[in-house]
Amino acid sequence: MAFEAIQSIVGRAIEHYPDRVAVEAPSSRLSYAELDEHADGVAAALHRAGAEAGSVVAVLTDDRAELAAAMVGVLRLGAVVAPLDLSAPRLRLAAVLADAGPTHALVGAGGDRRADGPLSTVPDTVRVDLGAAKSATPDSYPAHVAAPDDPSHLFHTSGSTGRPKGILGRLSSIDHYVRWQAGLLGAGPGWRVGQLVSPAFDAVLRDVLLPLSVGGTLCAPAADTRSDPSALARWLDRERISLIHCVPSVFRPLLTAAVTGGLGFESLRCVALSGERLPPADVARWFDHFCDRVTLLNLYGPSETTMTKTFHVVTRSDTDRASIPIGRPMPQTEVLLLDEAGDPVPDGHVGEINLRTPHRALGYHRQPQATSRAFVPDRLREGAGGVLYRTGDFGRLLPDGALEFLGRRDHQVKIGGVRVELEEVESALRECPGVTEAAVVLGDPEDGPPLLHAFVEPATGIDTDAVRARLTERLPAAAVPAGIVAADRIPRTISGKIDRAALRAPAPAAAPDQPTDGPRNPTEQAVADIWSSVLPAPAVDVHRTFQESGGGSLAVITVLSRIEEEFGVSLPLLTFLRNPTIEALAGVVEEALLDTTSDDLLKD
Fold this sequence. Notes:
Layout: H1 6-16, E1 21-25, E2 28-31, H2 32-48, E3 56-60, H3 64-77, E4 80-83, H4 90-100, E5 104-107, E6 126-129, E7 151-157, E8 165-170, H5 172-185, E9 192-194, H6 204-214, E10 217-219, H7 223-226, H8 229-238, E11 243-246, H9 248-261, E12 270-273, H10 280-290, E13 295-300, E14 310-313, E15 328-329, E16 334-338, E17 351-356, E18 363-364, H11 368-374, E19 375-377, E20 387-397, E21 403-408, E22 412-415, E23 418-421, H12 422-430, E24 437-443, E25 451-457, H13 464-474, E26 483-486, H14 522-534, H15 553-567, H16 573-578, H17 582-603
Parallel strand pairs: 1-10, 3-4, 3-5, 5-6, 9-10, 11-12, 12-13, 25-26
Antiparallel strand pairs: 1-2, 7-8, 8-18, 13-14, 14-15, 16-17, 17-20, 19-20, 20-21, 22-23, 24-25
């Protein structure tokens, strides 16, 4: 498959389908012709502001139509697009911007126009008003001749030192993935692709550029809809969405909402899953409800290799496996399972997943040492000058040739598809007042999203609620531990290292001087049981808020889903946020049940 720049592919779709709807967002709508005009205006405005090929351009907007135009416009100029998530903590945004060091920033809806906002950490960055970018004549910015190895995008993951780690991508990897997936699924002009992921993750490239490359429509729900399973399920059904990409933690409550709400997702053709292990039980429930009408695609690929590098079309027979495979490599990609010496392991044996592909990232932004550790010479092809990417993940080949994912080799985990360095979280904890040592481990509930648990020393003098509040200001939501336990001493191995296996025990019970008010009626007890199943809180207090009990955004989604399963009541996210205690939420559930009963009596 010969290289063609993604901006050229999108340009061809613009020529063929000028009047089709390119983007549908809550507050805006663009035809392909309007997208073309806006993207040209972005490129021209950046050029007038001094940007050129290779310049890093941050994008700060809540409007997905503006985001799409910005991405296409930046790529047309040959610059590097660095989308940011405005819902991220302010200090996290500031840290990412400081590491990226953008020469320019496109500021749009909801963007940073304050003097003390995140852009204050990069005072030399030139701001360009995204909304005011006007249409441009063809010669208003220089035509860029694209090459496969052009730097094209910059996304940040957690770093072990507490510093965000930027991954600089190359242009060829975008068209390689987008054209592959479009061909695999047969995506075309009638396809409506849901945009669910944060713009700060490289998965946004496929959300935005796949539909725009085939004449389809990029469809973005409102922010509160994205975090409310029932509302999101209804939106997918109502808006006739053809394809979504999501993590299993979002897929699970979506499935529950569809089943309890009687939704058929008649237009849905594919759900592409990645970022976490896909439980066979969830797949079994999906096939029980939808049979095989909708394709389930299990994807795997670190951001260092751009979006995806292996795939597996899930079948009903996969539900009999211990885990769903991550499949086989996509074209122009090879998977090598290597031992500690860098030699291939025998078939069926466990080895570290190494990826050989020309479509890997260019490296870590301004971190050459980290790049050389992860992107290593391909000594198995001597003289070829090739490079392997060491994923740090372990896997093995199954008898049928499919690849099974077995976990990480280091302290890096994924929460809701977001890559989190445990050492980054530990580093942030040690900066909190009173904390001298910290350890973070991953808990994996049987039915719910994985959760981080933190243990801190010493036990006295530490306000864990204050610690959590501080972390919330500095880390992505996925990296904030659900539970923080103050301990007299964190256990260590005989060599003096933190004994993480010993920390996987349940958190200790609440101290006697911390009385709790337990459930007082059956509804409160049922809600408390749901909370306890997804939260690490050592005791349940009906007056304590969900956040105070260690709840995060993914846990909220799980709770809402289980309430719908348990009571047959669909609660909007806003209702939950306004009633964040067991007492208040149980009252809302009882009112909803009474309303339902009254409606049934009136019908009778």
